[in-house]
Amino acid sequence: MAKLLGTPVVLVPSPTGRPQVAAEVLGYQQFDPDLNVAGVILNGVGSPAHLEFCKPQIEATTGLPVLGYLPRRTDFEQPERHLGLIPTVEGTVANQWYESIITQVEETIDVGRIAELARLSAAPSSARAEGMQVYPQQPQPKRAVIAVAQDKAFNFYYQDSLDCWRPGAPK
C-alpha cells in the first residue's frame, strides 16, 4: 500500500537474538528501491548497551535514522493468539496495557520526527495508481454453498472476507 500511495515506511525489526539486524534492514531497503523506507524503530531492545550496539550499525549500513526503540518488557506481551489479536468473544485488553505502551512510546520513540517524515513526503497521488489493479477482476465461478462456523472455537474472521461472500458470491 505504501508503494502504491508513495508514502514513507518505518521498519520495526526485532534485534533480539539477531546481531545482524542492520543486514536485515538493508535487505528490506534494497529489495524494492521504489519503496520509500524512511526510518527504523527497534522492537524488543534488551538494554541500553544493546541499543548502542544496534543503532550505529543500522545508521552506518543503511543511512536510515533509528527513530527510537521499544524495550523488551514482559508486561507488553499478550498471550499467544492467532495474528496477535484477541477475538471479541474473549474480551478486551485493559486500558492500563495501552497506557503503559503509550507512555513507553513517548519516552523512547521520536514521534515528532516520524510526523515530520510523513509531512515531508509527497501527498499520495492517484496518478501513481493508474493502471495498477490491487484486486484484479476474476471470472466469476458458479456459486458455491459455504458455511461459516461462529462459536468460541471458531470466531476470528476478517469482516472484509465475510463481506466478499455476500452479494453475487457463494450462498
UniProtKB/TrEMBL annotation:
InterPro entries in UniProt: CbiA/CobB_synth (IPR004484), CobQ/CobB/MinD/ParA_Nub-bd_dom (IPR002586), P-loop_NTPase (IPR027417)
Gene3D superfamilies: P-loop containing nucleotide triphosphate hydrolases
GO MF annotation, one: cobyrinic acid a,c-diamide synthase activity
Record Pfam families: CbiA
Domain CobQ/CobB/MinD/ParA nucleotide binding: 23-83
Protein name (record): Cobyrinate a,c-diamide synthase
Organism taxonomic ancestry: Eukaryota, Metazoa, Porifera, Demospongiae, Heteroscleromorpha
